Amino acid sequence: MQPSAQKIYLIHGWGVNRHVFDDFITRLPAAWDVHLLNLPGHGTAAVGETFDIERVADEFARQIEHPAHILGWSLGGLVALYLAARHPQKIQSLCLTASFAKLLAADHYPEGLNQVALGKMIALFQQDYAKHIKLFLQLQLLHTPDAAAIIERILPDIVRHGAPTALRDALNAAEHADARHLLPHIRQPSLLIFGGKDAITPSRMGGYLHRHLPHSRLHIIEKAAHAPFLSHADEFAAHYRSFIDAQQHEAAE
After folding, report:
1. SS3 63
2. How far from chain centre, in Å, is Cα 60?
């Protein structure tokens, strides 16, 4: 039986654009209707006066005509949480990978980071985006046998538009956002995939999401870093296909 035309929207993370998913989408069923979104100030998407996560979620919701499955990576996963909370009628499921409800640690939230190291990347990206985003991707795929081939496939389109214009605003928004209060109200099925070697969004952040999202399942890819959909693409895609197929089966019953 051929997979039905599931509608899928993928939301990338900070510092890149939708082309970071170019290799991953080749591993999804051809029958799926896959859409790649650019965050404001990333790729070809313009940014307004400020990078406002709630406004981004609302704008993406306007682009979704029928209930869809949302896959969000890192900052894209945070946007996906706001999408599900603010526009539940538009969302069938969530897949959050290497993402978070709150980036920085706080009282009663030790899962967050004490400091964010990404700020130092802004000047480097602005100085030579192609060089430093390649180095970043190489680090995330350090133990991936075909890392060079993957990067060769996605890098030209990622760097085509140069460094994202919203680097500082988007990072500032990520550091100040707090979606913890939204989690108990998100009723959609949620798949959480984290890397065991991720220093940017450690797997403990996935554990927090799992404990507070009512209908979630957590899978940790122990040898993955911050981009498991790239470094362990086949394993990631298999989990995601199984997750979507299970929902399709339940809906058909």
Report:
1. helix
2. 14
Sheet of 190-195, strand order: 33-37, 7-11, 68-73, 91-97, 190-195, 216-221
- For residue 215, what is the DSSP state? T
Residues annotated catalytic, as ranges: 74, 198, 226
What is the C-alpha to C-alpha distance for residues 129 and 133, in angstroms, rounded to an integer?
6
Residue 39 sits at φ, ψ, to 5 deg, of: -65, 155
pLDDT digits (tens, 9 = 90+) for 26-78: 999 999 999 999 999 999 887 776 899 999 999 999 999 899 999 999 999 99
Long-range contacts of 21-26 (CB under 8 A, 24+ apart): 21/229, 22/153, 22/154, 22/157, 23/150, 23/153, 23/154, 23/230, 23/233, 24/229, 24/230, 24/233, 24/236, 24/237
**CB contact set of 103 (below 8 Å; sequence gap of 6+):** 112, 113, 116, 174, 175, 177, 201
End-to-end CA distance of the chain: 16
Q: Which residue has the tokens 């969000």?
A: 72
Q: In this structure, which amino acid lies at residue 131?
A: K
Contact by Cβ (8 Å): 23, 233: yes
DSSP conformational letter for 24: G
- Smallest CA-to-CA distance from 245 within 10, 29, 84, 11 is with 29
- Global confidence as pTM: 0.96
Instruction: State the helix-helix crossing angle for 167-176 and 119-127, rounded to 10 degrees.
Output: 170
